[in-house]
Amino acid sequence: MDTELKNLNQNHSHEEQQQIDNGEQPLLKSDSKSSNQSTNKTTEKQVTAAELEAMEKKFAAYVRRDVYGPMGCGELPVKEKVLLGVAVVTLLPLRVVVGMTVLVIYYLVCRICTLFTTPHRPEEGEPQQMEDYGHLGGWRREVIVRCGRFLSRAMLFTLGFYWISNSSRIYDQEKLSDGSDSKDQLESSERPGVVISNHVSYLDILYHMSSSFPSFVAKRSVGKLPLVGLISKCLGCVYVQREDRSSDFKGVSGVVTERIKEAHDNSDAPLMLIFPEGTTTNGNFLLPFKTGAFRAGAPVLPVILKYPYQRFSPAWDSISGVRHVVFLLCQFVNYMEVMRLPIYYPSKEEKDDPKLYASNVRKLMADEGNMTLSDIGLPEKRIYHAALNAIAAV
Questions:
Q1: I want to staple 152 with a disulfide (CB 3.0 to 4.6 A). Which of 52, 68, 210, 234 is the partner?
Q2: Is residue 14 domain-shared with residue 119, that is, in the same domain?
Q3: pLDDT averaged over every residue in the chain
Q4: pLDDT (tens digit, 9 = 90+) per residue, 270-325?
Q5: Is the CB of residue 366 less than 8 Å from the CB of residue 373?
Q6: 66 found inside a domain
Q7: 8 Å CB contact between 63 and 71
């Protein structure tokens, strides 16, 4: 886009120079410059609109369609401005105070339950993971889990998710009577080792904490955050550095696989939660699945999350974190729909081929959740964000 704009500017400069050489220099030079600047601005707007339309088709999985527009910077109607102004003065401070209170209370619960205990540390030969308290037992674990589930739901309530629609998909015995693999899935009763979920927002984690309180993969920096760091350690999170592509990064994949196997075999071990897409979308698309959650060959529990909206979309796709939190807190009511599919038991072929296993689960979730399969991923998301920032700067 920058190249096209430069070419347009160069063409206008060349035409102006030809007029001067032919003795056709305008009498009012300042007006000419003003006219040229106005023309350039109009052309830039036209180019921006055309490119924006093309990008929205190419990067459809990350496009916002709510009232606030791309990056949450769209022109708001008068009614929306009034509602936003009222909410900033009344609802926003109230929710911030209540939300921080809930967070501090759970931090204190985790702090008390971890006193005089030894955290789990990586053994020799394992990747350099942070210590965690995910394997605590007895009353300590019971208090952490029960309080965590209750307070996570309380946090969602504070954020405006007063009602969460839950539904479970049950396969028809007659419809599946022809496939032996499907029969095996209906007859098996093994415990899943991992929850597989589409990824729409950071709110996904709060829901899963309130539902099954699983461990999940998080950035290493999360473990060092005030308040949240200890809570993530009590969840038993596996920490990774996204930019790290060393042998240690591969070791983390091995830790995840072992955790999934442990959760599958031991009912006292925390379930793993994996977002195999690797990044968030607007909720209407399903990105390609990474195979890490499927390498263990253990059964998985697919869960589909959706966030219906009328004004502001809770999806964290192409909007900054601060702007997203402010608009979310200023929305009087937020909605969430959850569809839990039956536990998926892999066939022998799927156990031997994690890519096939991941692909089949992805197709199932897309069909059941009425989502479109997309072939783009995190690199394309970064390109789209960079393009939006460039357009906003014009």
A1: 210
A2: no
A3: 81
A4: 899 999 999 999 999 999 999 999 999 999 999 999 999 989 999 998 898 899 99
A5: yes
A6: no
A7: no
Question: How large is the average pLDDT for residues 239-257?
Answer: 66
DSSP states along 90-124: THHHHHHHHHHHHHHHHHHHHHHHTTT-PPB-PPT
Whole-angstrom distance, CA of residue 349 vs CA of residue 340: 24
Closest CA to 369 of 217, 213, 216, 199: 199
Do 294 and 331 fall into the same domain? yes
Cα(56)–Cα(303) distance, rounded to whole angstroms? 27
Q: How far apart, in Å, do the first and last CA atoms of the chain sit?
A: 11
Residue 275 has phi, psi (to 5 degrees) of -105, 90
**Which string of DSSP letters, residue by residue, matches 319-353?**
S-HHHHHHHHHT-S---EEEEEPPPBPP-HHHHH-
Band the pLDDT of 335: cuts 50, 70, 90. Answer: very high
Measured CA to CA, the distance from residue 115 to residue 263 in angstroms comes to 25
Q: Tell me the per-residue pLDDT of 219-237, one tens digit each, with 9 for 90 and over.
A: 888 888 999 999 999 998 8
Task: Please indicate, yes or no, whether residues 49 and 125 belong to a single structural domain of this protein.
Answer: no
CA dist 135 and 120 (Å) reads 7
Q: How many domains does the chain have?
A: 2
On the question of pLDDT at 372 being above 70, the answer is: yes
Residues 202 and 304 in one domain: yes
Task: Give how far Cα 329 sits from Cα of 59, 209, 296, Å.
Answer: 27, 20, 39
> Domain containing 201: what range?
78-393
Q: Is 81 exposed, middle or buried (0-12, 13-18, 19+ CB in 10 A)?
A: exposed
Please check whether residue 25 lies inside any domain of the structure: no
State yes or no: pLDDT of 394 exceeds 50. Answer: yes
Q: What is the pLDDT of residue 294?
A: 95
- DSSP type of residue 281: -
**130 and 52 together in one domain:** no
Note whether 137 and 210 are same-domain residues. Answer: yes
Q: Are residues 9 and 114 in the same domain?
A: no
- The answer as to whether 84 is a domain residue is yes
Domain of residue 158, CATH code: 3.40.1130
Q: Is residue 134 part of a domain?
A: yes
- When pLDDT is cut at 50, 70 and 90, the band that residue 386 belongs to is confident
Measured distance CA(45)–CA(190) in Å, rounded = 58
- Summarised one tens digit per residue, pLDDT across range 73-115 is 888 889 999 999 999 999 999 999 999 999 999 999 999 999 9
